[in-house]
Write a structure and sequence with these properties.
This protein is α+β, with helices and mostly antiparallel strands. The protein contains 2 helices and 4 strands. The protein has one domain: Alpha-Beta Plaits.
Amino acid sequence: MYKTIVGIDGMICSMCEAHINDAVRKAFSVKKVSSSHKRKQAEILSEEYIDEESLRSVINETGYRVLSVMTEPYEKKNFRLFKRN
């Protein structure tokens, strides 16, 4: 699994976030995508590696500008509850 953080310029509201999220979902098979106009970034979780140039192209076509792309392996954290005696 991979976690991709995309720095994005031009988002100013929640509709901008939704526009980015929809474009990413349509173009790639992703587990989760969430964008934040306040942090100026989108976070994508996917099973397969997403090609950086393709991702840049999809987001740039929406009218926003990609500033950076960082991808790293991602492991879901499992939290265990322990019973106290």
